[in-house]
């Protein structure tokens, strides 16, 4: 029966007729008109059209085959699948931090609120309640360094705070530095007192070097005998890392060499250090201004000789009181490191032995640079090795000059 026939043969009005049921015809339903109480019909919805869906001008017209609603689609659980979990910055947090709040570095170290336990059996018990905060010593990209005093021992310490970044690289840097510090008992590496973990921050406590970093102490330059003692400490510290821990520092520069008013000079900041046997050394690690030419050329590996270059650049800077390359433009600076003659100590101020020592470190070809054992046998080192230099006087005066 067609729609027209239905309209021509409407039934005669009867009292209280039953509500007619929708009739399925030609793939669409014909519904009786809706009415208000009392019988008057409701006006059509705005924008609607016969056979269409309202809500937009003209609606969506019915199409053949749309008369019946399709079966609802199966959900993921009915298909035996799980909905994909949304990835968040903290998705990997549970890999490292257990429900008790302990930070676990792949079984190598466990840091908690009361200290750190290393897999080799060494443990260091220290917690925030043991410390009295005194002053901020510095601030960096990832956190701060505070001067603190240990309540129990009355020892002044430097406490480094690092906000935990949930990426493998940053976690590796934290573990690397902790691993080096707790294994380093040498007199040319800052002493480690312990570490703890609270509320997404790793704190570790180390020796407080009260004179500060050498970049703040050298002023307009240092005397040759002081430079020699600094060179001896740096070379012995780097040699210890290589020989005892199979570590290359990869970020040798005056900022990462500390002094105290006793005149001691020690290396610090091992976050980007690399293990030689695992070939972890890659480019773009450390400060570009102290990079060896082979690193700037995007070489894939980093060797001990690259640290020797950085040692040479650092000694020139400390000796003359300024970084030896122009640094107004980084591109020009890196180009100069590759193409220009290496810098040197001025021969009218420093002895031939001192000049030759630095020149040997700054050979453009890595294989021509001496190893640490050879550097310790160099005439410049031998000249001052047993000379009594008042490093405490120099450090104290340099520190006072820095404050003024």
UniProtKB/TrEMBL annotation:
The keyword Membrane does not apply. GO terms for biological process: cellular hyperosmotic response; p38MAPK cascade. Signal peptide: none annotated. This is mitogen-activated protein kinase kinase. ATP binds at residue 160. It comes from Mucor saturninus. GO terms for molecular function: ATP binding; MAP kinase kinase activity; protein serine/threonine kinase activity. InterPro entries: Kinase-like_dom_sf, Prot_kinase_dom, Protein_kinase_ATP_BS. Its EC number is 2.7.12.2. Belongs to the protein kinase superfamily. STE Ser/Thr protein kinase family. MAP kinase kinase subfamily.
